[in-house]
Every structure is written in C-alpha cells, then in structure tokens.
Amino acid sequence: DGTAWMAFYCLNMLNMALELAKHNSVYEDIASKFFEHFIFIADAMTYRQGDNELSLWNEEEGFYFDAIQWGESHSQQMPIRSLVGLIPLYATLVLEPSVINRFPGFKKRMEWFIDNRPEIAARNMANMKARGRGERRLLALTNKDRLVRILEKMLDESEFFSDYGIRSMSLYHKDHPWSIIVRILEKMLDESEFFSDYGIRSMSLYHKEHPWSINVNGQDFGVEYWPGDSRSGMFGGNSNWRGPIWLAVNFLLVESLQRFHQYYGDELQVECPTGSGDYMDLAKVADEIQHRLIHIFGRDMDGRRATNGGDEKLDRDPHFRDYVLFHEFFHGDDGRGLGASHQTGWTGLVAFSIMQSGLSCRLPRTPKTPRSVARHYFDEHIDTVSEAGDAPFSAYSAIDRNTFGDLSPDAL
C-alpha cells in the first residue's frame, strides 16, 4: 500500500502547487514535477509484459495486492483481500478545465507528456486524454474497468461492506484462504466481504474461514480475519487492520468515490450491495457508505447504539445514553466501539458524513428508503432545495442556509 499512498501524496502536492501558482507562477513547475512522479508511480504499480517487475495489480482477480520479495530470486503477490487493495482508489484528482487553462505552463508540460509518452499515459491508469462531465480531466491510478472491479468487492456485504462502514479485511477470508473469485468493485460492495452494515471493513470477511499464509525461510506467517482486537503481537503489535472499521480510511474512500463521480457522472453505475440488483452511481454509493458509518452511532428501532456494544447503562440510563463515545475503531461485524474511547481526532469525521447525507439516512437495520442523490455536492452551483426533502435549503445548511456558490468538492 506504500506505493498507492505515494501516488495519493503526489496528487495532493500537485493540487496544492496549483493553488499556490495562483499567486506565484513558479509553482507551475512544481505541479508539473508531481504530475510526472504520479505517472511513473502508476506505471510501476502494474507489471509490464516482458519486464521482470512484480505487479501489484492482479488482472485475473481484479484487485490490488501487496507483494513480498526475499532473497535474490523469490517474489510473489500476497493474495489477501484487505484495505490495501482499496487504497489505490485514494489517488484520484479531477482537474477542472478552467484550472488547466489558467496555468499554460503546466498545461503545456502535461499535454506534452500525454502526447509523447502515450505508452505510459494510457497503460496503467485512467485515460487522461478523455474528457469527462464538464470537460474535466481525471488523474487516477484506476481506469474505469479497474474501478468497477474494485468496487464490486468493496460493496460486497460478504467481503468489505459492513452495516457500519468498510471493513479493513474482507469477510471472504473467513472461509477462503487461497482462492480469489470476485472482482474489485464486487468485492468492496459485497456484504460477505468488505461491505459491513457499518462501513467498509479493513479486511474481507472471506478470510474469517480462509486465512492466508506464506512460508519464508522455513517459518510460517499467516493472516486471518479478526473483526475486533488483534489476537497477535506480530507485525507491529496490536495491529487492528484485519477486519475492523476505521473512520479515517472510510472517509478517504467516500471522498475518492465522490471525485470519480464528478468525472464519470451518471454514466458509471455499479451494483450496491453486490448481488442486490440495485445499481447506483458513485455519488449514491458514497452516500450508502456514509449511512452505514452513521449507523454505528445512531439508535436502532430498539433504542440501542451499535457503538455501545449492548451496554445497558450507555443505552438506557438517562444520565449516559446521550453521551456518545468516539472510539478508535469499530468491530467489523457488529459495529461496537474498540480501542481508545475518545479518538475524536478522526472518528469525529462522522459529523462530516452526517452533514453530507444525514438528512436522508435511514435507521440502522431498517428497510432501505429512497435516498438523496447528493448531486448538489458535485454541480457547479449547489441546489437551494435539498433532494432529501422539502426543506428550502441544501444538506450543507446545517452550517449556513446560504448556498456556497461555485465551489468544488475539494474546496468544501
């Protein structure tokens, strides 16, 4: 995942450089440099036919995997359905035509690279020549086909898609230690893998019954699906990335999906959850993930909050029931809070989800009802009437009843 994080870093630095270039044109050169770094990182992540490099993308399985190398001649992918395979989605930036045209130096160097290095610019990433909605350009590690395959996994409730967000490891590993059969988007949105009732798991539920292991120099190392606290002191001690739900990484996934929608619009529809027959655009998928994150903290029909883990005092006592704890991470299957109980620094991000989609969020574990499309988030001008209801203001009016004008998602 370190490679994907560096691609994410390059795009953020590129974005900041263009912002600074509004005041000093020298930053156009820096933006161009980070653009080139991003291109080379994207190229390095995917195996090129005839080279001896080890790819991080598995074309057969439709997912990104970590790779391990030891000695001079030993290397292989590690086919573990974890959040590692979703992190490449973070590296996504949409360039408005007005931004590109404002910086002629950056535009010239970007277009030179696309025209003169087409074997790199079109091979392992989104097509930068193609214009999306509103003539926008997309910089992303994943092209449209790969994006769909990744989301199939992420939105699969048998993998990453929990009722309470995105699991850190696919539920698939609960029963399938070796084989990988579902494509990337199928995996992410599969409720038997990443798609929990409470968000996206950090590892697929699949690994619960199907742990993965490798023998290195006569010693076995394994990975299993653990939706709660880690059961092993290996790999950095209490490593809670084997299934729990983390607000920070779910937030980054939501933001990435919103950026992809900004480019693809209604053209790209995926099944969510996988196998449900319910197809939606990526703005609605982002909403669905946010709803599941909110379900961690919201009361269900019985008046209980998943984060409280069934604690009677926290759920029923009038002196405690309205005080919500912001735990460090959450159980991938039942949403109960784990780790530090006052991790407001990133778990407080649920407030942002509530601001964006709270008006249309249903109660936890209740039938789905029509949801807002959140299209106001992407249009050039935010609608003054929320699609969630009849209130004469947008979902952002929790802060201000005035519209925000011509602002991009990044500006918000």
UniProtKB/TrEMBL annotation:
Pfam families: Glyco_hydro_63. GO terms for biological process: oligosaccharide metabolic process. Residues 180-266 form the Glycosyl hydrolase family 63 C-terminal domain. GO terms for molecular function: Glc3Man9GlcNAc2 oligosaccharide glucosidase activity. InterPro entries: 6-hairpin_glycosidase_sf, 6hp_glycosidase-like_sf, Glyco_hydro_63_C, Glycoside_hydrolase_63. PANTHER family: GLYCOSYL HYDROLASE FAMILY 63 C-TERMINAL DOMAIN-CONTAINING PROTEIN, MANNOSYL-OLIGOSACCHARIDE GLUCOSIDASE. This is Glycosyl hydrolase family 63 C-terminal domain-containing protein. It comes from Rhizoctonia solani.
